[in-house]
Prior knowledge:
By secondary structure, the protein is low in regular secondary structure. It has 2 domains: 1-22 and 31-103, Pectate Lyase C-like (3 Solenoid); 133-254, 3 Solenoid (Pectate Lyase C-like), CATH 2.160.20.80. It is built from 3 helices and no strands. It has helices spanning 4-13, 221-224, 237-246. It is elongated and about 75 Å long.
Amino acid sequence: MLSREETWKRLVQINAVQGEMPSEQWNLGGADLTEADLTEFNLCGANLSGVNLSRAKLIGTYLSGANLVRASLNKASLINANLNVANLSEANLTEAYLNLAELGGANLTGANLTKADLPEAYLIGVTLTNACLIEADLSKAVLSGCSFQKANFARADLSEADLNAADLSEADLSEANLTGADLNRVSLRHANLRGANLDRANLSGADLQEADLRGALNLTINQLSSVETLYAAQLDAILENQLEKDYAHLLNKL
């Protein structure tokens, strides 16, 4: 990672900023950094609100605590970037590369991550309420404790992801790949899981109240026997009949 001084010097060279390096928060708000090479820059706490970073190289860049509200990062390369506690609300991250990125505690409320690459990304405690993650790759990502209320994961790859204690209430997980995912103690209230692949997914303690599980693939009675509740959930007839026979208490109101 570059020093703050070297980072400022490089920003001056590409006309992103002018003058001496300020001691207070750096303000790059509204700048056009399309396709800029910001590899390993130190932009900790910088104001990048509304900045155009489309197709920019931010590999290993330090953006912890940065303000990236409504920033355009579509097709940007953020591989191994540090975005811990950054504010990315309403940011455009479509087709962005976030492999191995750290986003602990980041705010991605309303962000667009359609077709984004986040395999093995670290997102503990991230807020993704109302975020769009259609066809995003989150395989093997660490997503424990995240808030995904009303997020759209349609056709997303969440295979082997760690979603322990995450809040996915009212989320759209239709046709998502949840093979081997850890959904221990996850809230899936009112979630749409129609056509989702739940092969070997851990549903222990999961709250599936009023969830739609019709057409879910590779879902077994053994998986459902360990959930917290299935009250008012929508299920395929075969599974519902088995539950009524052997685990009727799971269908009752808590």
